[in-house]
From TrEMBL:
Record's protein name: Transcriptional regulator
Domain HTH cro/C1-type: 16-70
Residues making up the signal peptide according to the UniProt record: none
One Pfam assignment: HTH_31
Organism: Streptomyces pharetrae CZA14
Amino acid sequence: MQHGPAVRRRKLGAELRALRTGAGLTSGEAARLVGWHQSKVSRIETGASGVRPADVRSLLDAYGVRDPHLRELLLVLAGSGGGQGRDHWWHAYRGVLPPTYRDFISLESQASAMRTLETSVVPGLLQTAEYARAVTRAAVEGLDEERLDTLVEVRLARQDVLRSRPPLALSAVLDEAVLRREVGGPDVMHRQLLRLLEAARLPQVRLQVLPFSAGAHIGVTGPFVIFSFSNTSDLDVVVLDHLTSSLYLERKEDVGAYTEAFDALRNNALSTEESLDYIAGIADGA
C-alpha cells in the first residue's frame, strides 16, 4: 500500500501494459529503455508493487505518450499531487485508519465525481459532526473517546473535497429511511436535515430522495459508491462496503451494471426540487 490503494495500482498497471503493447514493446524491451530489470516492469503492470510518479513519467516517455491529459491521469494514479490537487492529508492518520478506509479516502480525494446510493445513513461527505459521532459510535464497538474524536475529525476533513478547486461533483440518492432514522436523537437529526438542505445549494451537489412510496427498487440490495475520474470512464470504480471490509469492482461489466442501476434509481427518485421540499417537510415535522 506504500504508493496508493491496490485498486489504483491495478488500474495503473493495466493502463501502462496497454500503452506498452500499443508501442510494440515487450516488457523486456521496455525495461531496457528505462534501465530497469524486466521483473520491475512486470510487477508494476500486475499491480504487485507500487510505482513512483517519476517512474511513470519514464515509462510514458519510453512509450511515446504525449497526451497531457492521459499523462496527468496516470500520474494521479501513481500518487502524484496533480489531478484534482488534493493533498494526501490522510497519511497523518495511518495508525488509526484501516487500509480499506485509507484506500477509499484516496480514491475520493482524486476522483472528479462520486455517485452514491445510501440506504441507511447520510453520506459521510454531508454529515454534521454530531451526526458523524453518533454513527461512528454505533458502527464501531469499544471506541474510546480519543479514537472516536479522531475518526470524526477524519470524516469532517474528507468533506474538503466539496470545497476544493475543482470540487468533487457529488450525486446522491437517499432512501427515505436515511431521513427518518433518528441518529443521535431528534435534535441531532433535525440539524442534520438542515445540513442536507444547505449542502444541496452547492452547484456541485445533487440530492434526490427515493421515498417509501417508490416501493421495492434495485437498490434494496445495499448502498454503493461509483467513483469517476477526469477524461476517461475506463478508470471508474465501484465500492461496496461490508461490515469488516470493502469490495472494489473494476471490471467494465460491473461498473456498467452499477451505473445503469444508479441511473434507474435517479429516474425513480423525486426530482432535486421535490427532494428538497421533502427533506424540508421532514425537518419541519410534516
